[in-house]
Amino acid sequence: MSGDAVLEVTDLRVSFPGEKGTRLEAVRGLSYQVRRGETLAIVGESGSGKSVSSMAAIGLLPTNAKVTGSVRFRGRELLGLSDKEMSRIRGAGISMVFQDPLSALTPVYRVGEAIAAAIRVHQEVASSIATRRAVELLELVGIPDPARRAQAFPHEFSGGMRQRVMIAMAIANDPDVIIADEPTTALDVTVQAQILEVLATAKAATGAAIVLITHDLGVVAGFADRATVMYAGRPVETATVEELFAEPRMPYTAGLLGSLPRLDAGRGARLRSIPGSPPSLLEVGTGCPFAPRCEFVLEVCRTTEPELVEVARGRAAACHRSGEGLDLMAIGESDAVAADQDSEPAGTESEPIKELAATPTADPARTEAAPIPVLTVRDLIKHHPLTKGAVIRRRIGTVRAVDGVSLDIPAGSTLALVGESGSGKTTTVMEILRLRAPQAGSISVLGQDLDALNRGRNVRRRAKEVRAGIAAVFQDPLASLDPRLPVGDLLAEPLRTHGHGKPGARVRELLQMVGLEPAHANRFPREFSGGQRQRVAIARALALEPRLVVLDEPVSALDVSVRAGILNLLADLQRELGLAYLFVSHDLAVVRHVADRVAVLNLGRVVEYGDADSVFEDPRHPYTRALLSAVPVPDPVVERRRERIVLPGDPPSPVVLDGDADALRGCRFRGRCPLYAALESPEARSRCETEDSAPTPVDGDAGRTAACHHLGAEAPALIPHDTVA
């Protein structure tokens, strides 16, 4: 055991049975050690082996997995121990926080019972003592009214609260090591900030080492001490977080850092993307697995896989050129367009992929808006009845999904809708795409009012004409593309529906427009990588030459290294075709990169609206300020200097029960508002409690609004409330 390390992994290798007697090498030679009180981040994209390595360390892999190497905990070898012996270590010496707490928590146990059971498995204490300790742990991780909530079941908690319960269970027996596997991935950014704060509290309370498994480099920058970057099942770089971000020694690490949109960067700069996509572990050859994507590749890289060797004290890299002093952060700058492509999926013949030419035409988003916006929404309302009962159903309340949304999108510009889960983003988009008269308010698409469009003669014909002018690209391209049809038929389908008799030429044009080859028309969606499938979805959306494209989380399901290429492609298409985008995203760094204007939604209402530069650089609504402060910046120097406003609790429900008059009284954000909590004047607090907050022009600018009674309040007034530095 090295020094005072509590967990030491040496040359860990994990493989699973493959087809025809082959084995899939999921982890290939991972080594690391972690000391008490230290946080080690293991970073990688999907398929890199990071989660498999953590499951191997605590003996939770299926029996068909072959695990070799060494995993030593406090000097004791864990590989080869029986499940009974490992059970004494799991939950006591080493604990685990999983990505999905709902599947990790037993649904028939109350959360207090589950935590108490975890205590009694490893400690000989009375049931009453374990129960009391469970309540103390729930209080430690920030569960309000812990004694009462200990009696609740997991399904009665929100996602963020369930993750807090998981952390409470993880620290119940004062472990030496906590392995956190993507603990914030499925959470809203505000809840992510809370969970990271709770993990920091847990580490301080127990002195445990944390092994953080993540793909989020922003989280790594603010939370970890050291990092190991994995690619194709093996570690390719290890360093302190400060060294890794300041001077990466492996081209893959540099490419990841360069491809990330940043909240503190301006709009419009072309992202430096990595060509291709991560390889299949079934197809890893003898050379460097990153060689097909590397801009610094040598012939030796294609034939010999580099060893992970020390390049400086305390850091190592797996690159044949790591000692040459190359400026790796310049990756992609010389040929940014070519780097935007996704490689062929495993097992297919490699073909060149073209890119839309980046000709220096005028940017429509920076010119005057068209007299008639492509989309105008005024006071849109969509409420759903909430009912109870299986046989005799009765109404008990209302789901106020959208509650008065107004927005405009000029031709050639991008409007982003942002907000937490349940804020009304998706419902707003669905109301627009339905092309039906709204429940209340008005929607005008391409100059056509939807209420008028659905009345009178030839409704179907007129609706079809409008439908051709609006298209959508969704989060999961595999789910939105028919797996039974080849790509050529998928692209031809909307063309035939709208009367294009011979769509072949247009199909070839569309494929080339999104950087694919005409030969790809004969392939099925499953034969493409994730980034390529999203390019196919974009091509299908462009088939009828729309003027407005709705982009619903278009890059959130893609690997980090592939996202930049898709974002660059969308920017190219907008510039070349004059498209307007309605961009829905939870990733505010991506929104900062793409949006001209931003609408911030909370509980179905627009709480702040304006041009992106103004909203991001000078947010006026407390909710917007909290959202922006919660977004991690992938730079440890910047991230660790930032102040963070941590909103209490989880995003509230849009449900209003019948007879609950208080739910609609006053500002609906005040229950979480740091500004309201800091107000000392009874008159000011009373205004928030009794008066609804309507959108108000900011500094006399009608194009910039915020729905807050106290727009003149300075941002520093928010900082002291529930803040972590």
From TrEMBL:
<dbReference type="GO" id="GO:0016887">
    <property type="term" value="F:ATP hydrolysis activity"/>
</dbReference>
<feature type="domain" description="ABC transporter">
    <location>
        <begin position="7"/>
        <end position="257"/>
    </location>
</feature>
<keyword id="KW-0547">Nucleotide-binding</keyword>
<dbReference type="InterPro" id="IPR003439">
    <property type="entry name" value="ABC_transporter-like_ATP-bd"/>
</dbReference>
<dbReference type="Pfam" id="PF08352">
    <property type="entry name" value="oligo_HPY"/>
</dbReference>
<dbReference type="GO" id="GO:0005886">
    <property type="term" value="C:plasma membrane"/>
</dbReference>
<dbReference type="GO" id="GO:0015833">
    <property type="term" value="P:peptide transport"/>
</dbReference>
<dbReference type="InterPro" id="IPR003593">
    <property type="entry name" value="AAA+_ATPase"/>
</dbReference>
<feature type="region of interest" description="Disordered">
    <location>
        <begin position="684"/>
        <end position="704"/>
    </location>
</feature>
<keyword id="KW-0813">Transport</keyword>
<comment type="similarity">
    <text>Belongs to the ABC transporter superfamily.</text>
</comment>
<dbReference type="GO" id="GO:0005524">
    <property type="term" value="F:ATP binding"/>
</dbReference>
<protein>
    <submittedName>
        <fullName>Oligopeptide/dipeptide ABC transporter, ATPase subunit</fullName>
    </submittedName>
</protein>
<dbReference type="InterPro" id="IPR013563">
    <property type="entry name" value="Oligopep_ABC_C"/>
</dbReference>
<feature type="region of interest" description="Disordered">
    <location>
        <begin position="338"/>
        <end position="367"/>
    </location>
</feature>
<dbReference type="Pfam" id="PF00005">
    <property type="entry name" value="ABC_tran"/>
</dbReference>
<dbReference type="InterPro" id="IPR017871">
    <property type="entry name" value="ABC_transporter-like_CS"/>
</dbReference>
<dbReference type="InterPro" id="IPR027417">
    <property type="entry name" value="P-loop_NTPase"/>
</dbReference>
<keyword id="KW-0067">ATP-binding</keyword>
<dbReference type="InterPro" id="IPR050388">
    <property type="entry name" value="ABC_Ni/Peptide_Import"/>
</dbReference>
<feature type="domain" description="ABC transporter">
    <location>
        <begin position="375"/>
        <end position="628"/>
    </location>
</feature>
<keyword id="KW-1003">Cell membrane</keyword>
<keyword id="KW-0472">Membrane</keyword>
